[in-house]
Amino acid sequence: MAVVPSASAFSFSPNNDSVTVTATDINQSFEINFGGNVDTTNVEGLSSKAIFKFLGFTTVGSKTEAKFDISLSNTSSNGITSRTSALGFDVDKTLFGVGNTNGSGNTRVSGLFSNDREGSFPNQFGNVDVCFTNGNTCQGGGNGGVSTGSVAATFSPILAFNGSVTSFTLSNLGVRYQSITGTSLGTSGTGEGFYVAPPPPPKKVSEPTTAAAIALFAVSALVVKKKKHLLPA
């Protein structure tokens, strides 16, 4: 599947293509990077990224809602431009109310995307349990989404489950691309998502003046110790 807080407790699969979210992850974030392909051929430079911030669980009657804020960017480069028109994934627990009215207790979305749908992405990507889009299906996308060169945009999906839920796993993360230019393969594609761990923070190095003071103190202490040793008893 990289802005990841050091205190994050998200659990990622060994190949980084799924993530387990628990109640302890509230207000934590993780980043998913998406590649891209057209007509099942990988296209270098066709890419997106999404930063998922988990906002926690809410109990609504006999249901549980899990809310995210997702910041989506189209990062296409290398002469490729595109529009990321949908984002979707599988969930290891049954979602309630996908594609229904956006009332409390149903899966729903607001912000950049207005529709939650179930179905499949094209380009042989396959089925997803839910996608977020401005189109009527996961295959479409309308004119919505975020384009190359645009600032990141945020949408806020709410996943609804029956019963009491304290954890779930997202997998098969993907995006839908439209309006692709810069390749002769076509104007429509998809991309798989993977988590990429951020590099560890750099080790803190003492400032030169501080290091010099420590070294001078050490030398002075050694000289004093030698003088004491040489004094007659």
Helix content: under 10%
SSE run: EEEEEEEEEEEEEEEH
Enumerate the spans where pLDDT stays under 50 for 5 or more consecutive residues.
1-7, 221-230
Overall morphology = globular
Number of strands: 15
| Strand-pairing-aware structural class | mainly beta
Give the averaged pLDDT, no decimals. 88
Question: TL;DR of this structure?
Answer:
This protein is 10% helix and 45% strand. It contains one helix and 15 strands.
Give an overview in words.
The structure is a single chain. The chain is mainly beta. It has one domain. The protein contains 1 helix and 15 strands, in the order βββββββββββββββα. The protein has one helix spanning 208-230; strands at 11-12, 18-22, 29-34, 37-38, 41-42, 48-60, 63-74, 81-91, 108-111, 115-121, 126-133, 146-147, 153-162, 167-181, 189-195. Strands 1, 2, 3, 6, 7, 8, 9, 10, 11, 12, 13, 14 and 15 form a 13-stranded antiparallel sheet that branches. The chain has a two-stranded antiparallel ribbon with strand order 4-5. β1 (11-12) and β2 (18-22) form a beta hairpin. The protein is globular and about 50 Å long. The protein starts with 10 loop residues before the first strand and ends with a helix. The model is unreliable at 1-7 and 221-230 (pLDDT under 50).
